[in-house]
TrEMBL record:
UniProt xrefs under Pfam families: NDK
Family affiliation: Belongs to the NDK family.
Listed transmembrane segments: none
Record's subunit section: Homotetramer.
Database matches in HAMAP family: NDP_kinase
Native source species: Pontibacillus chungwhensis BH030062
Active site positions, chain numbering: 115
Name recorded for this polypeptide: Nucleoside diphosphate kinase
Amino acid sequence: MEKTFIMVKPDGVQRNLIGDIVNRFEKKGFKLAGGKLMQIPSSLAEEHYGEHKEKPFFGELVEFITSGPVFAMVWEGENVIATARQMMGKTNPSEALPGTVRGDFGLTVGKNVIHGSDSPESAQREIGLFFNGEELLNYEKNDQNWLY
Ligand code: IDP
């Protein structure tokens, strides 16, 4: 089953949004494979956001994402990568629709509450950066027959 990497950013943790965000993914029908509260070291932040290294906001981005705890998760389910991106809303919260995480909770692109992998390649890469195999659980869940 497809997996994606989702992270509540430091602003979301400070603003008490972990529960709301987890709730949205649970209610949608996705299955939690792993999750942890962690403080990201600069080296991991720079690797995670490597594709933005040349951007003017790179320094600010690394500083922000390492500024406090994040809640990192792996969610699993049919088409979860693309669906999670829709549930997050556009990168800039001012363009994100109501009903999306960024549309409901964010105001600025620098503090947009949530990260989610944007493709199967980045999902695989990001899951590998943040979780080791033992932290991802493979277990039976009783709701699956009512979802699939
Ligand atoms: P995404 O998070 O929606 O995938 P990306 O383009 O991959 O968006 O950008 C990564 C993160 O970098 C964004 O979530 C946002 O927090 C930050 N970011 C993107 N553009 C800007 C900008 O112009 N100024 C400050 N931060 C930005």
